[in-house]
Structure formats: C-alpha cells, structure tokens
Design a protein that fits this description.
It is built from 18 helices and 17 strands. The strands form three sheets. It has a nine-stranded mixed beta sheet, sandwiched between helices. The protein has a six-stranded parallel beta sheet with strand order 14-13-12-15-16-17, sandwiched between helices. It is about 45% helix and about 20% strand. The chain has about 475 residues and is an alpha/beta fold. The structure holds 6-O-phosphono-alpha-D-glucopyranose. The site of 6-O-phosphono-alpha-D-glucopyranose has 7 residues, from loops.
Length: about 475
C-alpha cells in the first residue's frame, strides 16, 4: 500500500473502480465496478504501488471519503457538489461529449454565454483538483495515466506541478473534425488541446480519432504534425499519439454467459420470443447511440417486408444514463414512445414486435447476446462500441452484425459486418433484412471472424500496451 508520494503508477478518471451506497442503517456498502481499466491495472500486478484518483460521485462516496473509509489505493476527491455538477454535466457531458459526437442541434445550441463560462471555471477547478492530488501522490518519475474528456486539462496542469512524471492521456470517445471542433469558443478550443498535449502520449481508440485530434492541433494551434511518426509538436514540446483498439474480454464473457443466472434469463427470453428470429441491441441510453432511428428502421422493415410480420422480435435493452440531463430524459421518453408505436401498429395478442427493457440487468443482456440472430449497433458516432465486439463472442448460433460505419469498432469489424449509414433508416432496414436472411454458413463464418477481431486486444493487453509504450519512450523532456 503506497504512502503519500510513493505511488509508481497512477490512474485518474472521473468514475473510479468502486462506489459506496449508504444503507438505511447508515452503514456504507462498497460496490466494485468492472471495465477495461480495472482488469488492466490488475494485470500490472499487486506488487506495484498504484493509486487510482477519481471523483466522489454519490453521497455514499462522499461519506466514505470524509470518514477515511476508502481503500488506500483509491483516492476519491470530495469536490464541491456544485463545482462537480457544472464540470461533469455542464462541460464534460453537455459540451465536450456533444462536440466529439457531433450531436448539437446547431440552429439553437450550443450557446456559449455567461452560464457556460461559469461551468468552464468549474471544469478548470475540477481538473486542477485532480492534478494536485496526482502531484501529491506520485513517486519521483512515476507514470500517470489520465482518462478521457472529463480530464482534458489535467495533463498540462500536472506537468507544471511535476515535470518529472511520465504522463499519458487516453480518449475513450471519438474526436471531432476541426470544423465542428471550432464550435467551441477559441480560447477553450485551445485550452482543451494544449491540456492534452501536456501529456507525453495521447492515446485514442482508432486511427481516425487520432488523426482528427492531430488535425485540430494543426488547425487551431498551428501545431506541427508528423502524420507518419504520429507526433504533434507545439511550443517546443512533442507529444506522441498512439492508437490502442480496446477489445472485448472474451474469456470473461464466455464464462460469465454460461452461469445459471444467464441460463434462467435465456429460458425466459426464449419463451417470450417463441422461436422467431431476433434482432438484438443493448445500449446505455445515450443520444449518440441512435436507438430511435434503429426503431424507425425496424418499423420500416415491418412495413415494407410483410414476410417478417410475426416472424421477428426486436429485443432492445436501453439502460439508464445521465438522467441529470434533460436531453437524456427526453431521449429516453422518445425511445419508449417509438417502441410503443411499433407495438401498437403491428402487435397481435400473440406477438410483441419490440421487447424494450430500460432497467439495467447484465445477465439478461448476456442472455440476449446468446439468442441474437442479428445484432444492431447503429450509433451516430462512437469511440469504439464494445457491444459490437461482445455479441459475436457470446452468440450461441453465430449472429450477423449490422454496424454503423461511424462506430470506432467498424475499423476492425467492417469487413464481416453489414455496414450502415446511421442516419439512413431505409438502408438500415435493408441491412436488417440482409442480415436476417444471411445464409447460415456465411453467418457462422463471419461471426467467427468478428469474434476473433473483437477480442484481439482484450482489456488487460490494451492497458499494458499503452503503459509499456509510455514507459519505454524517452523520459520527459
Ligand atoms: C461512455 C464513454 C466513456 C465515458 C463513460 C462515462 O462509456 O464511452 O468515454 O468515460 O461513458 O460514463 P459516465 O456514466 O461516467 O458518465
């Protein structure tokens, strides 16, 4: 367990590996999360002193932090709730997320006025709190891996405090092309880029997002970009760009998908589906996931190809996300409304065309993965999209994958998927038909290749790859 200033490896992310719930009797219950970073860090080994710096998100987290009850390897920052909300909801999720996913309704938004400036000041304070905590916990020459758009300013702020550290930043989202990125106020567009360029290495999920970042550095900062060597030089400092395509954890999924709780849910789903073909989608209800257009495409399929009536079921799991934001609440309502319209239009006493669930249930998701004839993954834009990689690994009979060309995963899976333009619901309906009628042998062969490509870089290898690239590089200049 590291003392202050002794950690050799530090991770920084908004959401940490554990969260606390306050029980009715006042006790605190910890819940450990999963995900790529958790398995990645454990792959480095227990013997290396590590600290994970994250924000206290819930009341339980704040209580655990104040009572000194958190695990010593997790440092939760008890940031003022107003500051946190403005940074997380206002800037990270309503501004940077919208920019990188190209989801503004530009005739009316964004409006960068006084309220926005207040949010930006909070984002700066939040990033400063992370930089200070990391600077205090890091051993001399330690390695720090900063995650995502919540913490785009932290690398530069941390470098100013601790020039001895090796700093990496990783973006889990897409990156916007320059014309769209320049919606941001000029000073803020510069600050976000120079913030990340404070790192020795900036990592991305695909070549496309790394190239977009480099394009923005060139267009906005006038930085020098070497596209072959993948470096950006700005004001005398060079930052290397890296691409690490996070894959699905095949071993974990295969084992987890055959436990009794999944089997039980699979039986229930099978009964409800009644031997019909299935189109499966599983998403957090993000604006970028394009669930409503997916439903429109399915409706178009039923309207134009009556041979599918009573022969297919669309299993759509749309789990809650970011309900503090009004746009997300409205979007969830429109998902529910559209699914209901389809069931009203086509449903019969014995056939429910759309089975929509909005309550999160991981074993039930795995059961749907196993049952999938067709997986529908049609985001407007997505950093990677792990569901596209997971369903082919788990599906019992081999599934066909309908995949948006705007998902990061398309770079690796495109050849064996049925590719769609996410805005074109007629083409998506046709793609669903093609996927549903794909000959069994072709479907099995494609699915095998999709599963192999989707598990090429599982989370622990993904983490080690970027850690090694960062630590093997030149020491900080
Ligand atoms: C998605 C994105 C990640 C992001 C995460 C944050 O999974 O792909 O880039 O870090 O959302 O989610 P949260 O629930 O913490 O807002």
């Amino acid at each position: 367990m590291p003392n202050a200033s002794e950690a050799r490896i530090l991770l920084a992310s908004n959401r940490g590996p554990v969260s606390y719930t306050v029980e009715d009797d006042g006790t605190l219950t910890p819940r450990r999360g999963g995900g790529g970073l958790v398995s990645g860090l454990s792959a480095i080994g227990e013997e290396v002193d590590s600290v994970w710096v994250c924000a206290a998100l819930s009341e339980g987290d704040r209580a655990a932090t104040r009572q000194g009850r958190t695990d010593p390897s997790v440092r939760m920052l008890d940031i003022d709730p107003g500051t946190f909300a403005r940074a997380y909801n206002g800037i990270a999720n309503s501004t940077l997320w919208f920019v990188h996913h190209l989801i503004y309704n530009t005739p009316t938004s964004p409006v960068f006025g006084a309220a926005f400036r207040r949010e930006w000041a909070s984002y700066e304070a939040y990033n400063t709190a992370f930089a200070e905590a990391l600077a205090a916990a890091a051993a001399p020459g330690a390695t720090v891996l900063v995650q995502d758009y919540h913490l785009s300013l932290t690398p530069r702020l941390l470098r100013a405090l601790r020039p001895d550290l090796r700093i990496g930043h990783f973006s889990h989202t897409p990156w916007a092309p320059p014309d769209y990125y320049r919606l941001l106020p000029d000073d803020i567009a510069r600050d976000v880029l120079t913030g990340i360029l404070g790192a020795d290495r900036a990592g991305f999920l695909t070549q496309r997002w790394a190239a977009a970042f480099a394009d923005c550095c060139e267009a906005v900062l006038g930085a020098e970009v070497d596209r072959d060597a993948l470096t950006v030089t700005h004001q005398g400092r060079r930052t290397r760009l890296g691409v690490h395509a996070l894959g699905a954890d095949g071993d974990f999924l295969r084992e987890r998908a055959h436990r009794p709780d999944v089997d039980a849910r699979l039986s229930a789903l099978r009964e409800a589906v009644g031997g019909r073909a299935t189109v499966v989608r599983v998403d957090r209800t993000e604006l970028s996931k394009n669930i409503v257009r997916g439903l429109h495409a399915y409706r178009h399929l039923l309207r134009t190809r009556p041979e599918w009536l009573d022969r297919v079921v669309h299993i759509a799991f749309a789990y809650p996300s970011r309900h503090d934001l009004p746009e997300y609440r409205e979007y969830t309502a429109s998902v529910l409304r559209t699914a209901q319209e389809i069931n009203d239009e086509f449903g019969t006493p014995t056939w429910q065309p759309v089975m929509l669930h909005v309550d999160d249930d991981f074993p039930r998701s795995l059961a749907a993965y196993r049952l999938a004839d067709v997986a529908l993954v049609n985001p407007i834009r997505d950093g990677m999209n792990l569901v596209a990689k997971e369903i082919p690994v788990v599906s019992d009979e081999g599934c066909a994958l309908v995949l948006s060309r705007e998902a990061g995963a398309h770079a690796e899976l495109g050849e064996d998927a049925v590719t769609v333009n996410p805005y074109d619901v007629i083409a998506t309906a046709e793609a669903l038909h093609r996927a549903l009628t794909m000959p069994r042998g072709e479907r099995t062969d494609r699915c095998k290749r999709l599963a192999a490509a989707g598990t090429a870089l599982p989370p622990s290898a993904w983490f080690l790859e970027q850690y090694t690239a960062l630590t093997e590089g030149q020491p900080p200049e």
